[in-house]
Design goal:
alpha/beta; 4-stranded parallel beta sheet; 8 strands; globular
């Protein structure tokens, strides 16, 4: 009797394991080049697909090189999602077995692109909605039996974006940031400065490694000082590169604080809305620090100076917190 009972238990466990493996195999595989696309895809596919992001969170896509295993994953996945302008796309096989989404799909769907700048197009909340719709439509093509599920997730995501846009409007009003003057290290953050209504006085590096001449740097410094720019916004992954070096140089000459902002979530588990909120709050904190320091004025009183130092210290703690989360998840 005991032997029979034991055998029944073993058979039951084996069937459970087999069913679990079968369910896992039935899931779609989605591969996204970068974390923002992966985050939006997860919100739409939910538990019906496994989402893999190629470029590690907090890394620079320009420095990424796919491994052979990743190239094979791109070839065999059910849905491959890219912006369509990533420099490493040419290293992937063209004969993909599944569906692919890229630049032409976003353009045809009606995403907003300012002056042809593909950098961080997902930072426009309305673009995030469009990207989500395109992903949902393709998931329905791949997996029509779950069409209602994907459509429901899409509706939920769109509601979250509507709430995000209301929150952004509140932040702009509460902190009176609309029209504040800033400098950009590169063109990366044009979308987010536009949705915040900031006045971009200039971009230090216009395009890939198009470094400004010494005379152009002097002109940027002069303009920023005269117009009393509040902050220089630079890409965190470029802190040790030319963008960071030039941003620091201009900051030393003008007294304008620099903030280093991540272009994608440094924790892959962060949702699109979470990433947008902490990125916007970081920029707002930088503007507040610039206001306290008196913009670009070098002759500031002692009290505002120390207040500015305190605000910048809070920014540093915030960035350290984000990096700690990144290391925790990567370990």
């Amino acid at each position: 009797m005991k032997l029979r009972l034991g055998m029944l238990i073993l058979i039951s466990l084996s069937l459970t394991a087999a069913l679990k493996i079968s369910c896992e195999r039935e899931k779609l595989t989605i591969v996204a080049t970068i974390a923002p696309l992966g985050s939006i895809a997860r919100e739409i596919c939910g538990e019906k697909a496994n989402v893999v992001v190629l470029v590690p969170s907090g890394s620079d896509p320009h420095q990424y090189a796919p491994k052979p295993m990743e190239a094979e994953l791109v070839r065999t996945c059910d849905l491959f999602i890219s912006i369509g302008k990533e420099p490493f796309l040419g290293q992937f096989p063209e004969n993909k077995l599944g569906l692919s989404l890229g630049w032409s799909d976003w353009i045809n769907a009606g995403v907003y692109i300012r002056r042809g700048n593909p950098h961080y197009l997902w930072m426009y909340p309305e673009n995030a909605k469009i990207i989500a719709r395109v992903i949902a439509n393709n998931l329905i093509l791949l997996n029509p039996e779950n069409s209602e599920y994907y459509s429901s997730n899409l509706a939920t995501f769109e509601e979250k974006i509507d709430s995000l846009e209301s929150w952004i409007s509140l932040i702009k009003t509460q902190y009176s940031i609309e029209g504040e003057k800033v400098l950009l290290g590169g063109a990366h953050f044009e979308p987010i400065t536009e949705i915040l209504g900031l006045n971009v006085l200039g971009i230090i590096i216009k395009g890939e490694e198009k470094l400004p001449s010494p005379s152009e740097i002097v002109e940027i410094e002069k303009l920023a000082s005269e117009e009393r720019a509040k902050v220089i916004i630079a890409l965190a992954t470029q802190k040790g590169g030319n963008e960071g070096r030039l941003a620091d140089q201009i900051s030393r000459e003008t007294g304008i604080p620099v903030i280093y902002v991540h272009g994608v979530a440094i924790d892959e588990g962060d949702t699109y809305v979470e990433f947008m909120k902490y990125t916007i709050l970081q920029i707002v904190s930088g503007i507040q620090a610039g206001r306290t320091a008196g913009g670009s004025s070098k002759s500031i009183s002692t009290r505002p100076y120390w207040i500015a130092i305190l605000i910048l210290a809070v920014l540093l703690i915030f960035q350290t917190f984000l990096l700690a989360r990144c290391f925790k998840w990567s370990s």
